[in-house]
Specification:
By secondary structure, the chain is an alpha+beta fold. It contains 14 helices and four strands. The chain has one domain: Outer membrane efflux proteins (OEP) (Up-down Bundle). A four-stranded antiparallel β-sheet has the order 1-2-3-4, with no helix packed on it. Helix 3 packs across helix 4, helix 8 packs across helix 11 and helix 10 runs antiparallel to helix 11. The longest helix is centred in the middle third of the chain and has 67 residues.
Length: 476
């Protein structure tokens, strides 16, 4: 018996998994500041990652695709989502494990041996095996697999959200840059016109009221330029936050929008199939492909597996305990049979609770489906509304350009002065500003349509959008 105890202890020690600390984790404030400051957009590892994932050539500039992949590389939300996936996968191993096999031994010594026996010692070894009945293990596995699927889909949804936030921030930053340039040009044109009007007032050709109105316009244009500068800083700060880098990394970063907008594609699809058919097709596409919708459906599957598990728990498990004994040298065997979890109430309370949770999750799925279709409705409406704004802005540009050409021709012929030409130039600057604003709204509306449908024309043009559950990650 003394020889068996060390052997049993050795087997237990070999079967154990030792605790291991994480050598890469360090949550000190100084380390956090250092790591954040070290993130650079010219990092060779980032460049290699972008080239591998999207095949983006480096001389194409910072496009929406490149901005989106940069956000996936630096933002920490993906690390959290991946950890949740790993936890869910570990849960599958736990759910699929069979009940543990246990063994017990006992040793006793009597005060005096029985008749015809030579030993006062009695030993016994008993094993206990639990047999789960009612399909409990299958229900646990179904629940764990549903949780893993939901975690993977939520990882994709998080990545999609980060990429779209970065894309929207880039579009906003480009629009803010253009608005600042237009506000500066308008302020310059208004100031030039104001100086000309003051000169004409000095010559007695204008009234003081007209000069005062011009000076008011000049101050308003200067304030608008300052406000545009503030809006640009806010837009660049939003871009820095979307990418997970410092502000100075994106303050002067050149950005470029793809020349094709999803709203333009929507117009062509509507012309071929009709607006109703296009809306239904987009809604069906979104409900079939959006990761957040899939995650909610996976959660419903898990809730259904929970109900199956509670129903299975109505059936008690069976335990078998075969064993051997030596009663003062006389060998024998024993078999223990037990039902350790008899349930008198047929588990009605947990079953009712699981049915309610399944119904709740089903309502969540339907609610999200309705929300997705409402998002598509709004995105399609915004695209159609912006189409008219861009067309009106184009018409205004043509008319204003024609008026500016006429004013310049009249000035060249000596029929008018520099003031009339400056007024026409100011009108052209304002018309161009309105057109750029309309284009920015169209790009934002197109990005909103992509977000609602789960489709991105930039990345999907070269193949599937990068799947985060398998191949999106950063070496941090």
């Amino acid at each position: 018996m003394r020889c068996r105890l060390p052997l049993i202890g050795l087997l237990v020690a070999v079967g154990c998994i030792r605790y291991r600390s994480d050598p890469q984790f360090e949550a000190t404030p100084s380390r956090a500041v250092t790591d954040f400051a070290a993130r650079r957009l010219d990092d060779s590892a980032l460049t290699s990652y972008i080239t591998r994932m999207a095949g983006t050539a480096l001389d194409t500039g910072w496009t929406e695709d490149r901005i989106a992949l940069t956000a996936l590389y630096f933002r920490g939300e993906l690390r959290l989502a991946r950890a949740i996936v790993d936890e869910a996968r570990a849960g599958e191993a736990t759910a699929g494990a069979w009940p543990p096999f246990t063994a017990e031994g006992s040793v006793s010594r009597t005060a005096r041996p029985l008749e015809n026996t030579q030993s006062r010692w009695s030993e016994s070894i008993t094993a206990t095996l639990t047999l789960e009945l009612g399909g409990k293990r299958g229900a646990r596995l179904a629940r764990a697999r549903a949780e893993t699927l939901a975690a993977r889909l939520r990882l994709d949804a998080v990545a999609w959200q980060l990429a779209n936030d970065a894309r929207a921030a880039a579009i906003g930053a480009i629009a803010a840059d253009a608005a600042l340039a237009d506000a500066t040009a308008e302020a310059t044109a208004v100031r030039t016109l104001s100086q000309m009007l003051r000169a004409r007032y000095a010559d007695g050709q204008l009234s003081l009221a007209e000069v005062a109105r011009a000076e008011t316009d000049e101050r308003g244009a200067a304030i608008a330029a300052v406000e545009a500068q503030r809006a640009r800083i806010d837009a660049r700060a939003a871009l820095a936050r979307a990418l997970g880098v410092r502000f100075d990394r994106v303050d002067t970063l050149p950005l470029r929008i793809a020349p094709v907008s999803s709203c333009t594609i929507l117009d062509s699809l509507s012309a071929r199939s009709g607006s109703v058919a296009v809306h239904d097709s987009l809604a069906l596409l979104a409900l079939q492909t959006r990761a957040d919708v899939g995650a909610e459906v996976a959660e419903y599957t898990g809730a259904d597996a929970d109900l199956r598990l509670e129903v299975a728990r109505q059936y008690p498990d069976l335990t078998l305990g075969p064993g051997l004994l030596w009663d003062q040298g006389i060998p024998g065997w024993i078999v223990n049979v037990g039902l350790p979890s008899l349930i008198g109430g047929r588990n009605r309370g947990p079953i009712a609770g699981s049915e309610a949770r399944r119904a709740e999750q089903g309502a969540r799925v339907r609610l999200l489906q309705d929300s997705v279709q409402s998002d598509i409705d709004g995105a399609v409406a915004r695209c159609r509304g912006v189409r008219g704004v861009v067309a009106s802005a184009d018409s205004l540009i043509d008319a204003t350009q024609h008026a500016a050409d006429l004013a310049d021709s009249a000035y060249q012929r000596g029929e008018t002065g520099r003031t009339e030409r400056a007024i026409a130039d100011l009108a052209l600057v304002r018309a161009e500003h309105m057109r750029r604003q309309a284009i920015a709204r169209r790009e934002a509306a197109g990005a909103g349509l992509d977000r609602a449908t789960g489709r991105w024309i930039g990345l999907t043009a070269r193949g599937p959008w990068p799947g985060t559950a398998t191949n999106v990650g950063q070496p941090q």
